[in-house]
Every structure is written in structure tokens, then in C-alpha cells.
User: Fold Threonylcarbamoyl-AMP synthase from Marinobacter pelagius.
Amino acid sequence: MPHTLKLDATQSGAIEHAANLLRRGQLVALPTETVYGLAGDAANPRAVKKIFEAKQRPLGHPLIVHLSDPRRIEQWASKVPETAWKLIEEYWPGPLTLLLPKKDSVSDFITGGQPGIALRMPAHRATLETIKLLGRDIVAPSANPYGRVSPTSAEHVINAMSGRIDAVLDGGHCTVGIESTIVDLTGERPSIARPGQISQRDIEQCLGISLSGKSPSQQAVPGNVKRHYQPNTPTIGLPAGDFSEQFPRRAPKGARIGVIWWQSVPGPEATESTRLAADPDEYARMLYTAMHSMDQAALDYLFIELPPETDRWMAVHDRLRRACSR
Ligand code: TXA
Ligand code: MG
Assistant:
């Protein structure tokens, strides 16, 4: 069991230290604008294997390769369509992952045997510098145990992964707070494989076309499981319009109950409560932090007042649906 070192990205030498650990095949949780990633050297199969072990993630779930230079995509993708360059121009570095046809040389360990490779250039100075210093690309799934809530601070990583990884580079709280949008460019028409802060409409506007409803990879990939992003506390979602009426009836008597709400002030049945913003971007930024602190409060149940079902809330709804799926 490694001792997990905490490195402060603002201290001199911390980024060099993180890059050296990665060079030796060790695992370092790195900050990104979306969530913290559990990084390993993509060129080192033993490091890649250790990521699966540390997360207790089943093999066959593919990993995103993180780059510090967009031109590196040509090392991984067999074909880079014009649509990819347009999206890169508009959104990289940023919370957008591109799924492209992989080169034959790319290890099945990274792609889980899928025909595509997922690539992203994150918008976090410390992580971009770490990759540059390492001089190689990294693979980085979210730095949480399999199926659990992604970390949006170094403390979240330490709480869940301490002793299982070599270090965490503390780069502050993530500004986006939910995982990147994945755009699948392996099919005839681009499609969204995972919704995120960059919306379907944003992508359509950038490309000047309408996206296909179905992503060819979405069905095939085991990472797309229904139960995901789950707090340890059993979680129940209630629609905003019904919350005030349903919550007192559904809350088991005598239980310790947490509530994450945005519009309807919970009554005395709530032991703990946290209010999130009525704006989707601000809501997303704090959602996982709210879930992590509810998990620290030894509750029997967590109730979440669901936001409106409009397009701008799509990514948040995707995460909440999976968090509440039992
Ligand atoms: O924001 C993010 O994307 C974060 C940060 C750390 O960059 N990373 C992240 O990685 O969310 P992970 O492993 O937790 O989720 C990656 C998703 C999974 O649903 C996986 O199935 C999909 O991307 N994916 C990765 N590679 C793929 C591939 N080759 N084909 C299809 N889907 C892929
Ligand atoms: Mg994840």
C-alpha cells in the first residue's frame, strides 16, 4: 500500500515531483477543470493496469488519453476529420472529449477493445505543465472508486483513495464540476456519447450541422452503466414541482436524512441540507461537493430535489438519474 502524498500545485517543485512519479510508473491524481483524474503514463502498461486496480474498475472500461498539445491526437487517431479540428479550435483546452477511430498500434488496455480512442486536452495549468514535463501523454479516469461520485477537490480524492495511489496534486476546486462532454466522431454523423457542460446545441452551432441522436459507442461501452456517480448514502430524486408535498411523506420517520435542494426549502424531516444554485453551470460545479459532504454526515437517506427537465440541465440530469438508480 503506497502512502499517498499530497502535493500543492502552487508550491515550487510540486509539478516536477508529480511528473517524476508518473515517469516511474506511479499513479498521481491530477486536477482538471471538470473533475480530478487518476493519471498514469499512457505509454506504460503497468501503470495503466494499476489504475484499474486502484479504482477497482473492471477491465474493458476504456480510458481517456489526456494531452497537453492538440497535435498529439494524430499519434492516437487513425483519422482526424475536419469536424474534430473545428471542435478543437473552439473548445480545447476545455471540457470536451473527442472519440476518434483509433490507430492499430493503440493498446486494447486503453480502449477496452473498442474501435475508438477518447482524447482530451484539459484546461488546468498544473496538469498541462505536468504532462509537458513528463513528455508523454497520460490516461486519466475520474479519481474515484468504481461507480462512485467523482472528486472535485484534492480532499475528495484523499478521502476515497488514500493508500491506493501514490500522490494527489492539489490544484484547488474544479471549476466545471462534472465530467467532460464526449462527442463521438467515429460514426457517419457526430453524436453525444456523454452530456456535459458543453451542450449538444453548442456542438451543433460550432459544426453547423445537427447531431445524430445515437452514439455508436454508447451502447457498446461498459462505462455507460445505469448505476454510476453514486453517493454511498441511498439516494432518492424527487421532481421540483412535487418536492414540498412528497418529501415529508417519503422521508422515513426517525431516519437521518440529507437533502440537496435548489428551490423548495425542506421541512424538519431533514437532518442536513444544502442549497444549490438555480443556474445549471453553478449547480453542476457544486453538485459532487454536496454529495461528498452528505456522505460524510452518516445519513440513512439522501433526497435530491431534481432541477427542471430543460436542455441546459441535460448533463446534470444524466448524473442525477444514475446517482438515484438502485
Ligand atoms: O472530464 C472527464 O472526462 C474526466 C477528467 C478526469 O478528464 N475523466 C473521466 O474519465 O470522466 P472516466 O474514465 O471516468 O470516464 C470516461 C468515459 C467512460 O464512460 C468511458 O466509457 C468513455 O469515457 N470512453 C473512454 N474511452 C472510450 C472509448 N475508446 N470508446 C468509447 N467510450 C470511451
Ligand atoms: Mg468516471
